[in-house]
């Protein structure tokens, strides 16, 4: 029985989900840093 | 990103790539009937391991938050739940993919599979609770779920000892009678993913702290 497609699907899924999760965290980190900086600048101007 | 963080991320990546090399190039296929799909095992179990570690963080963070009331513990609890949900999902789905060639079914209502699914649902509920509860109440309510939900972790682990099950015997803590090459590959994979988990948890806790800082800055501004 050729079970390679199952192996491919399992490892592919692990990498895809992990990659997307890390990418989401990195993007969120950048967004939050920008937001925090903008907030601090706005407070200084007040 | 600090230099130490970069070095650790690089180490984690090298570790996982080395584990992949062992899985695909070094270790022999153990089960003729399942064929090459048996190698799903080497990443399937670490996914469960990461989720258990992550839910342990939630458990610990929740207890300490209720005890001390420090926000940092709540950040730890939340981060653990989120990481745990992601990797428990991967454990369940890769297990299902492995089950098809091994058992002839995508899913069976086996005690191990069912208790793991329940564990995942508990912590999905934890995250939903945090999303839909007012911010000043969410950490306390969620901490109760984080502690109570953790009771399912030993049930998942011992399910294969307590009940008759299709699932293979325990590997973590016993070695599961694996051939030395299989055990080496498994342990390398487990170590690499443990390092990866530590890095991911640090990243997520830092992010959660940043989210909280922004909320506090906004609130201070409103006042």
Short summary:
Chain A is mainly alpha-helical.
* Tally of DSSP helical segments of chain A: 1
What is the β-strand count of chain A? 0
Please give the radius of gyration of chain B in angstroms.
19 Å
Strand content of chain B: under 5%
What is the terminal separation of chain A in angstroms? Answer: 71 Å
Description:
The complex is a heterodimer of chains A (46) and B (223). Chain A has one domain. Helix content of chain A is 91%, strand content 0%. Chain A contains 1 helix and no strands. Chain A is rod-shaped, with a radius of gyration of 20 Å. The relative contact order of chain A is 0.08. Chain B has 223 residues and is an all-alpha fold. In chain B, 78% of the residues lie in helices and 0% in strands. Chain B contains 7 helices and no strands. The longest helix of chain B has 43 residues, at 180-222. The model of chain B has no long low-confidence stretch (mean pLDDT 90).
List the helices and strands and how they pair.
The complex is a heterodimer of chains A (46) and B (223).
Chain A: H1 4-45
Chain B: H1 3-26, H2 41-68, H3 71-103, H4 111-132, H5 138-149, H6 152-162, H7 180-222
Helix pairs in contact in B: 1-7, 2-3, 2-5, 2-7, 3-4, 3-7, 4-5, 4-6
List its traits:
heterodimer, A: 46 residues, mainly alpha, 1 helix, 91% helix, rod-shaped, B: 223 residues, Four Helix Bundle (Hemerythrin (Met), subunit A), 7 helices, 0% strand
